């Protein structure tokens, strides 16, 4: 897997960091580290949905605007958005103004409320799809059996814009898999973070 070594610190990183300096902080501090917070998980699912057909650089640059526009991705607040909010968002130049994706976020917030009521938390549900080590080279695929299963179950529950590729990117970013390149300096850190993380359990 190609690596990127920044001339400013000589630290080896995943090759995709070479695309823009904006990626470095995201890569070093967020990507691939386990997340158990429902709001952050919901935000990431939504942003991955908005990324569909676009680059992550575009979404990352607009992330603060997305947070402001969607009530910090508090899904219980977003679930109450109405047609007036849709029109407001369609006129917000700080975000990606795609009606289908905007309405999908509102729909998914409503479905998330239902899921949390049923399962106890979004985190418990998501982490129940954590795959075992499959021994596959990092960043060598865009879907996996686990992402296909997660996508299928979300769609079954009425979620939208959550295909297997979107689900896989979400799982990469939220630490359900460690997809840092083998020689990337963050791979060991992510492995340690995962070892110290206890996924929440679905309520019984």
TrEMBL record:
Zn(2+) binds at residues 14, 27, 180, 184. Keywords: Metal-binding, Zinc. Pfam families: Adenine_glyco (PF03352). Transmembrane segments: none annotated. The keyword Metal-binding applies. GO terms for biological process: base-excision repair. It comes from the Bacteria. GO terms for molecular function: DNA-3-methyladenine glycosylase activity; metal ion binding. This is DNA-3-methyladenine glycosylase I. It comes from Yoonia maritima.
């Amino acid at each position: 897997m190609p690596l990127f070594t920044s001339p400013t610190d000589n630290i080896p990183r995943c090759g995709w960091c070479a695309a823009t300096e904006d990626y470095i902080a995201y890569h070093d501090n967020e990507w691939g580290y386990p997340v158990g917070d429902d709001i952050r998980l919901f935000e990431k699912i939504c942003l991955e949905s908005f990324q569909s057909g676009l680059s992550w650089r575009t979404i990352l640059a607009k992330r603060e605007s997305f947070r402001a526009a969607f009530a910090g991705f508090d899904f219980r607040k977003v679930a109450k958005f109405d047609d007036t909010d849709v029109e407001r968002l369609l006129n917000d130049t700080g975000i990606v103004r795609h009606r289908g994706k905007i309405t999908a976020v509102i729909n998914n917030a409503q479905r998330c409320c239902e899921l949390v009521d049923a399962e106890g938390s979004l985190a418990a549900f998501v982490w129940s799809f954590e795959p075992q080590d499959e021994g596959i080279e990092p960043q060598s695929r865009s879907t996996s059996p686990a992402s296909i299963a997660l996508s299928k179950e979300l769609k079954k529950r009425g979620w939208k814009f959550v295909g297997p590729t979107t689900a896989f990117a979400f799982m990469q970013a939220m630490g359900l898999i460690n997809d840092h390149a083998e020689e990337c300096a963050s791979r060991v850190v992510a492995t340690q973070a995962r070892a110290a993380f206890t996924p929440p359990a679905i309520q019984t």
